[in-house]
Design brief:
disordered C terminus; about 375 residues
Length: about 375
Amino acid sequence: MELTLCVVLKPDKSYARHYDGSLIRETDMSDIVPPEVRPKPVVPAKPPNVAFLGHSVGHVGAHGHGGSHGSSGGSTLLGYIGIDSIIEQMRKKTMKTGFDFNIMVVGHSGLGKSTLVNTLFKSQVSRKSTGWARDEKIPKTVEIKSVSHVIEEGGVKMKLTVVDTPGFGDLINNDNCWDPISKFINEQYEKFLKEEVNITRKKRIPDTRVHCCLYFISPTGHSLRQLDIEFMKRLSHSVNIIPVIAKADTMTIEERQDFKQRVRKELEMSGIEFYPQKEFDEDMEDKSDNDKIREAMPFAVVGSDKEYQVNGKRVLGRKTAWGIVEVENPNHCEFAQLRDFLIRSHLQDLKEVTHNIHYETYRAKRLNENGGLHPISSSDTQESNL
């Protein structure tokens, strides 16, 4: 049997009639011919080295309202938005203003406080003094000496202020020798607070608050002195205290580990909380990282600003009768751990804890004492800036 196909053209329509002797059906060909293929909308190109953002929470409609179209799991963004550029914006703005970091060193004379700070920042940023000269009178009270330097590295400028405390623990009677230090720390909080409550305050308030206090423990190998316990107990709620064991090369590895464990136990029994405090851990990742740091404290360190030749390399170290103690060698001391912790991983957190915890505690106390601070006049502001 023959099957004949006849195509009949009609206006705007095309029909097909199928014959096998009689009319079977009439079909609209527009249902069969595929529609015209339209080009896809142009998608903005994603900048190089930028990760794709994944899924959005929902579409944004023509009137600005968020809507959910398609599947309930959200929709994939069609192009790069640029939200991640805010990090670069913040970096540029911060690079223009620079950073402030104020570090205090506390400990009796001869523990290498100035040398360690110079080693940390690889510069002569702290006063160089090995002790009191014969013709120099030992001060009757603890003195506070501040030295500021601007350090630049990789285009980043940081104003570093080192606060030294000569005379601490050097007297026969050391009762209340921490009072001048506590007074200095609170004075910096007070100065910052007065600038904040001033009606015509500065756009950027100078930050002289102490962000970190390195407390140097004598390498006795036995236990903490009562002066050490009293100082850290009284100031641990006012400033971030980081205890370090000075001149750790005077002890063997076994003596050093036993001494570290004994110091940690004494600090815990005395209720002394050193930085980083457990209650300030924001999430599990911070807690995991900070737990490792707390287990390693106090860091047993060695400081030196002298270079020696070791295996064809120039290294910072201390020369002894049996060899060179390399400062940055983790097998010799824990200086590298202290440097990475203090500067490379927790410097910004030290500043934030100082502002959000210690300074806020002082501010709330001051504002509650007399029902709040009165705004200071412009003449008072000029005097405070001198």
